[in-house]
Amino acid sequence: MNAIYSLVANFAHPVEPTFYQQLGLPDYIFGVAFASMATAIFLFSPFWNKVADRIGPNRVLTLSYIGYGFGQLYFFFFSDSVADVVVARLFAGAFIGGISVSHILYILENAENENKGSALAAMATVNAIFSAFGYLVGGLLGDVSLKLCLGIEVAGLWLLSPLHFLLLKDVPRSGEETRPGQLLRDANPLKAFILPKKDLSRAFVLFLMVCMLTSFASVCYEQCFNYFIKDQYGFPPSYNGYLKGGVGIITLIANSTICRYLLNRTDISRSTIYVLCICVVMMTGIVLINAVVPFIILNVVFFGFNAVYKPLLQSMLNGFSRKSESPVVGVYNSISNIGTIVGSLVSGFVYEVSPRGSFVYSTVAFILAAGCSSALAKTGETNTR
User: Fold this and answer.
1) b/e for 206-223, b at 16 or more Cβ within 10 A?
2) Side-chain half-sphere of 165: how many Cα atoms within 13 Å?
3) Using one digit for the tens of pLDDT, what is the confidence trace for 85-107?
4) How far is it, in rounded angstroms, from Cα 307 to Cα 286?
5) Is the Cβ–Cβ distance between 46 and 191 less than 8 Å?
6) What is the pLDDT, as a whole number, of residue 46?
7) Mean pLDDT in residue range 281-304
8) How far is it, in rounded angstroms, from Cα 77 to Cα 269?
9) CA torsion angle for 210, 31, 121, 98 (degrees, to 10)?
10) Which domains does the chain have, with CATH numbers?
């Protein structure tokens, strides 16, 4: 189900730059749109976390796919201004928060304790691979018809809802009632940052900083890249799709070899440092090189390593989850979404000043993330070998 979702939900991404330009919207819209969606994810993720605890993550998924589909329908078929785009992205993001939280919670509830880390890593790998192929399919469909591409995405999201209902089941719930007022208080997004002092170890704070910085760097880069190759090189949607499809193959190879080796044979916290350093090298080349072919090659290699560190971080998250009775998954999602929100806004508005400016900011964030990851490894609290 996660593979189908990752495929379908990415059909629209390679056609969005063309969509924005057809509407005559300003360049910064790609950053503002994604930041609006990320803001809603941040605000609603704790709410869906509590609802999933009450009724089960699979039931939340059946509802969230329908809501996300309606958000996409409004976004692509009825938006014609910046305000419309922002409202549509906020609406869709509210339900994406339910999807992202419930995917993780479903695995944590159903996987055996000793397999939860590898299961989370497997989900991150599936997400990265099928997201790339979703770009490929979306790019090819976009060259034929934008409306066709977007309509298939909406239909695919709505199809996932009954599939989840029919094929997957939640573990039995306790049956305890939750009052609406208590639910709203527990779902306060700012409350996710309030953890018992025993959980706010130096290692966990550093881990969260790595998550936020990598989220900022990845989103700041990716949002700029999609628009950059359309605006600067005039690439059609299919070119974006071809690139991400190639990335999907590279990601599959990297995660089945490099990532699996790092997860099973090394100290993950130290391995993450080296992966992030490679990302820094690739991003530096992307900033400095203008020629199209070397630029594309560097981006493809970067995409592969950008997918490798995410399973490593999620495996470390499982280690912190075992040590804590608090909902650290909610904290992880919230802090990552802050990086996403800021990264999206920076990407959009910096592009107005310098098209490559977002790549510079992304490079600096990866450097800082590598530094925090080095400090995290020195604490000795995340050796998951």
Assistant:
1) bbbbbbbbbbbbbbbbbb
2) 10
3) 999 999 999 999 899 889 988 99
4) 17
5) yes
6) 80
7) 88
8) 45
9) 110
10) 2-167+192-379 (1.20.1250.20)
